[in-house]
Amino acid sequence: MSEAPRVPSVRFLIALSLPVAAVYLWSAIGPKERGTWWLEVFPTLLVVPVLVATYRRFPLTPLLYVLIAIHACILAVGGHYTYAEVPFFNWIRDTFHLARNHYDRVGHFIQGFVPAMAARELLIRTSPLRRGPWLFAVVCCIALAISACYEFIEWWTALLTSPETGNAFLGTQGDVWDTQWDMFLALLGSITAQLTLGRLHNRQLVDLLPAWAEHELVATPPRSTAMRPRMK
């Protein structure tokens, strides 16, 4: 008889959401540029209602919920200060004589890291793909596509909004290769996420999905002998 799925508890999700709510409350009080704040936190305002609405029918792994919470906090901090003016990263810039504030680099690395794990979970649960090279490659491609689409949004926003909002949202800081760096770091994030968290993610998927998924996700199927040449 198969084990019942282990769904993340409501208590766990409330405990996870409280610090995120506190960060967003702080972030909303006196941000440096209100238009930029709305643009930065808008993805969270879209994702959270979807997560709440689908919790019963399509709960996610605890790992993915935690990663989404971390990503949300990173967006809130960037929205409050703008990505080019986060104080701690200004201190790093000045202390180590760097050319720019690198908080936006962290943000774009996470932009690849977290969506990669989300894409990995959705593909494993809703498509024929299983762990292996194809899953790894497709997840990286999805992360790159998300990053590229976000660059489009930044471009269009800079064209349609005020110069202050547009420049703060772009956050290029004078770097002509900023867009390429952003997408490259998203790719690195997607690779790093799968290499470092893939096994933990598999174990949590086994807990969450029906028992038959354990063979699909964790066990290595025996290699077929049908095509092996016979030894003479």
Secondary-structure map:
Blueprint: H1 10-28, H2 34-54, H3 62-81, H4 87-95, H5 103-126, H6 133-160, H7 163-170, H8 178-208, H9 213-217
Helix pairs in contact: 1-3, 2-3, 2-7, 3-5, 5-6, 5-8, 6-7, 6-8
Give a written overview of the molecule:
The chain is mostly helical and 232 residues long. It has one domain (10-209). 71% of the residues lie in helices and 0% in strands. The N and C termini lie far apart (45 Å). 29% of the residues are buried.
Question: Total helix count?
Answer: 9
Beta-sheet strand percentage?
A: under 5%
What are the secondary-structure elements, in order, as H or E?
HHHHHHHHH
Assembly level: single chain
Rg calculated over all Cα atoms: 21 Å
Largest sheet: none
- How many discrete domains? 1
Structural class comes to mainly alpha
Helix fraction, binned, reads over 70%
Structure summary, number of beta strands: 0
Distance between the termini: 45 Å
Poorly predicted runs are: 219-232
Name the descriptors:
232 residues, mainly alpha, 9 helices
Short description:
The chain is mostly helical and 232 residues long. It has 9 helices and no strands.
